[in-house]
Amino acid sequence: xxFVLLRPCTGNAGTSHGMEPSSLIxxxxxxxHIAIIMDGNGRWxxxxxxxxxxxxxxGVESVRNVVEGAAELGVKYLTLYAFxxxxxxxxxxxxxxxxxxxxxxxxxEVPTLNKNNxxxxxxxxxxxxxxxxxxxxxxxxxxxxxxxxxxLILALSYSSRWEIVHAIQQMxxxxxxxxxxxxxxxxxxxxxLLCTAGLPDPELLIRTGGEIRVSNxxxxxxxxxxxxxTEVKWPxxxxxxxxxxxxxxxxxxxxxxxxxxxxxxxxPEC
Length: 270
Hints:
The protein is an alpha/beta fold. The protein has a domain at 32-158 and 202-250: Decaprenyl diphosphate synthase-like (Undecaprenyl pyrophosphate synthetase), CATH 3.40.1180. Helix content is 40%, strand content 14%. The protein is built from eight helices and seven strands. It has a seven-stranded parallel beta sheet, with helices on both faces. The longest helix is centred in the middle third of the chain and has 24 residues, at 92-115.
């Protein structure tokens, strides 16, 4: 049985007693890979009487701040769900505006990524993206390829069902061509066909905006991830909210199918 706690939206991100959340984080027990569903941009804008694109525009500052916070702590991988395959069904003006914002943001942020030793990667059906967006992404990935700090992964035109079907199609082609036999198909082979091949599975999944669902995001990869839901909408989400989620993660007991007693017995004595 899974119990999900929805974190309230607080005016002052952080913990009680005026302590900075980052001071309560055990940097030796950081989640290696954090994934975030950046939800709530449109509703945030509508609450302010603005167009939905206004929310996406303000959400860019949240991306900057959260990426900065993850890098400061020493998180190795951060995946942001930026645009799903289902998002292509949104009003054309919103889709067009999002693509323009993507291109503009990439152009501006590459120097900052390099300054902070951050490598950019992309997962998803990038062939669906406009040519200018695809070209900017390709250049940004090449320009940051030598960085070895945080790896920032943008999920663009991505959905987990698309990813799994695509992997199965590739597997079927490999079997049909004789490259591999059915008996040789195993977990490692299948994972090598996914968009996230070579990346560790997320240990912590955060969703902003108050919804309690995973929305077709990394369904295979989050099998054992800890889930954290917050009412804070993405344009209001900052690094201290990220730190709160990590603190919550560090207070959970990750059992991976074992009992709590088994997990405690395996802990080394101090």
